[in-house]
Amino acid sequence: MAIEFEKGKIKGGFPVFWRGECKVLPGDFKLKQTFPEGTLIRKGTPIALDFAKMECTVCKAVKIVSGGTTSAPRVVKGSLVQIGDKLKIGENEQTINNIDKTNADYDVLTLAAALTGATANAFAVVGADVPNAVVETDKEYKTNMDFQTVSAGYDVVILREVAYPMPEEWLLGGWCMKNNPSIKYVRQ
């Protein structure tokens, strides 16, 4: 009698916050942007806080992966970009006309024209906001709610390979957030 082993895959992942620790600011911050119904804004997503109004902007970025073109780059899934957003690399900017999410490994963005610099491992950002905090708890966006808020983490160690893409221009020394050095991005 022989033992037969079956191989399988189990969904899972690593926690974004190292040791699960994140210091949180009191009160929640109202989202300035809108997102499609059911959009998941994951913990660790960079945000720019407006303390005077208790509002925040999700700082969107994409990491480009190999195999696409400068007018239809492939990007890491979960970027939160939407049709109509303008991707920017340096001084170059192009509008997103379509997003193909059918591939399990990446999304394909169709741009209005070629975006200079949109090559493998490059980052493109949306808007001019630079983050100073991160989302502390996963948030599912609901369109039937008038007041969408997120809790903001201000002191945390984030596992860089698991977290939302962070362009070098948002970091100091390649490992801590430029506008809040208490947020660190490490490899483990």
TrEMBL record:
<protein>
    <submittedName>
        <fullName>Uncharacterized protein</fullName>
    </submittedName>
</protein>
